Predict the structure.
Amino acid sequence: MRVLALNCGSSSLKFALLETTSGDRLLEGREELGEGAHEAALASLLARLEAAPELLAGIEAVGHRVVHGGEAFSAPTRIDADVVRGIQAVSPLAPLHNPANLLGIERFRAALPALPQVAVFDTAFHQTLPPRAHLYALPRFLHREHGVRRYGFHGTSHRYVAAEAVRRLELDDSRSRVVSAHLGNGCSLAAVLGGRCVDTSMGLSPLEGLVMGTRSGDVDPGLHLFLSQRLGFDLPRVTALLNEESGLLGISELSGDVRELEAAEGDGHAGARLALEIYCYRLARYAAALTVPLAGLDALVFTGGVGENSARVRAGVLEALAYLGLQLDPARNRDHGASSQGLVVRGGPPFALVVPTDEESLIALETARVLEASP
């Protein structure tokens, strides 16, 4: 089946036109987006397709990455009006992502109304978390009546790279113990046991967990009341602060982009150095914690824009985790594992490796699977 996979994220638009039987890519691209640039990027993609009628005519379906599906969507789902309403209902839990995902859905449903379209949810991979991992220590009615629980995100990426690591390392499919680190503008970790996610760092929303580009990750919940009383911040203002003004940007007072911070650190910028140190420390601490549900570790996988390209971040994390037996290989790390099947350590297990994510391939395959099962 020929599927257009659309990944309309908070800071980028990625797409690929794939033949799912052969895996051939007929078209692909990525565009980094500024504030409010989603409309223009989607219009540009549609114009590009219209300018290539031989490609446009061959598209059989469109698959969309959707970040948050709540508890209503535990598997890829064919899109109709009810599904759109369901995605809208949980959008407040992913305010930087779901609106962008919905915009992509709306534009392509309008432009290609005859084509079936499928939503592939980031949260679906994490629906296998046991109650001890996904429930918060809150009154139970909040989960029963309002769906308050840990959902997890980046599931499409975690699923792909964990499986690819198992394949490359020839691990036992049924017992493999993998911690995957998706590091981009947003960052999360997942503990994957025998191909099933058993714990993850993000929670009800993509705000929980690791330090990210502009998101704080974990903070004391009492901070909300403190900021309200001390500075007069209402909840929307606190939420904007934690999502858009914190993380690497807030600590460094310079940038939320790891590339810019690494350059500034090299020039002696103290805030950049501190931000990167906190980022790596929090990442290593969380990775160590996620070995608990796995009862050990076979592989730590780095992916995403930062995970795949920042030797500085990988070195900082692996040096902190050396006590687990992860032995950093500086030469392999410098070339991002290009000469060693992705490996950036000596020896093993446990192993650490770089695996470029390919969410678009998985979106296309899942879209084809849904439509072939229910034409």
Notes: The chain has a mean pLDDT of 95. The domain at 2-151+363-373 is CATH 3.30.420.40 (Nucleotidyltransferase; domain 5).
